[in-house]
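Changelog note: in this version the structure field was regenerated for every chain. One regenerated record is shown below for reference.
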Amino acid sequence: MIERVRERLSRIKMPHTYVILTGILLCVVVMTYLIPAGEYDRVMDAASGRMVVLPDSFHFIEGIRPGLFDIFLALQRGYVSAADIMFLIVFAYGYVYMLTENGTLNRAIRVLTRKLGSRTYLLIPVCMFLFGILGATLGIFEEVYGLISVFMGITVALGYDAVVGGAVVYVGVATGFAAAITNPFSVGIAQSIAELPISSGLWYRVVIFLVFQSAAVWYVMRYAKRVKADPTRSIIYGEQAAVPPAPAEDGGEMTLRQKICLLLFFVTIGVLLYGTSAWGWYVDEIAAWFLMMMVVTGIAGGYSATEICKSFIESTKSIVPSLLVIGFTRGILLTMQDAMISDTIVYGLSKLLGSGNKALAAVGMLFLQNVINFFITGSTSQATITMPIMVPVADIVGVGRETAVLAYCFGDGFSDMFWPTACALQCGLMGIPLNKWYRFMAPLFLIMMVLQTAFIVISAYLY
């Protein structure tokens, strides 16, 4: 009986992302006929220079209930409305793709491995922090998938197991992506929707990144040390999984062009941090900077104008599905806005979270974002759907908008390493059964949840 149940469960597959989003859209349409339209009055706050909600001003009004044609029209309007965010992603991804295609990132990692020599155990903290910084600043995530098999081979060759190699890449970059500093795909979009400059709360996010990344490194190193001392303690001990070979040495250092590209990479991060904090850069400026540095990096890498254009076009092929999702979710938001039910939902959530205790309200936001991430795994998708609701809730319950952004980043990012709707792909890339992954990840995820709760409570009283 148990085996039959397991067999049936194994056959269950999650629907395609667009099927899920279509279901959400149809649910929203139904909600427009069930939830009465309402709105809050908003005024310009002279101190902050942004529109804020008047907490006691909610009132019911007449909204527009969409018909069949209006549903499709909302999707078209959604793509137009989200154009700035969509092109930010296109240009940011184009820049990262250029670094990957010209071999700069791969060669830098190979050289680092060779330089460590007998101190190869340092590979774990060094590379995890490197991947974490990439995720926290540039929003890199899927771009490192190709390195998972490389690091699995390296760690097995060093006497660890394949889980260590997979975790160095996946846990490293995922932790950084969640503990975002200037990640344009999560905190950048969320701060934009919240009408906050990306520099707002920057140094608090830096502290958060250091704490979470250190905790992840400690956990992986602890597991690696235990496995090296006793291979039978590996969670995949006895598994007949094919382990990729360690990358062969190419016998060469980084080329001069690759060194220049690596230097430009650090310049890109530095200028991005300074531009957003000192020059007031926003979505348009950040997108233009990524586009500019993609061209500069291409020239430094020895690419001709035609090759740069071809590389950029090639990079867009893999990012199109994400772009379509963003426009789709913005269409869902516009449907809610036309029906004028967004504020009614906000009103209901404010009653649910408005306990009079900032800490409880902030933790409630964190819990809701974690639950939502089970169904909507894309960071930009979740931001465009939830932030327009959570920001007014934060205003009403007396919690800073920075806290609402932080709750979104935490709920969207860290649960990606745990919810099966998100981590199943990575388990497939690593060749690790989902149940084995949970044995490895569950204690770390519990630690991360405790840290998330602590930081969100502190944020509630800090902002």
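Spot check on this record: The first strand starts at residue 38 and ends at 39. Residues 240-249 have pLDDT under 50 and may be disordered.
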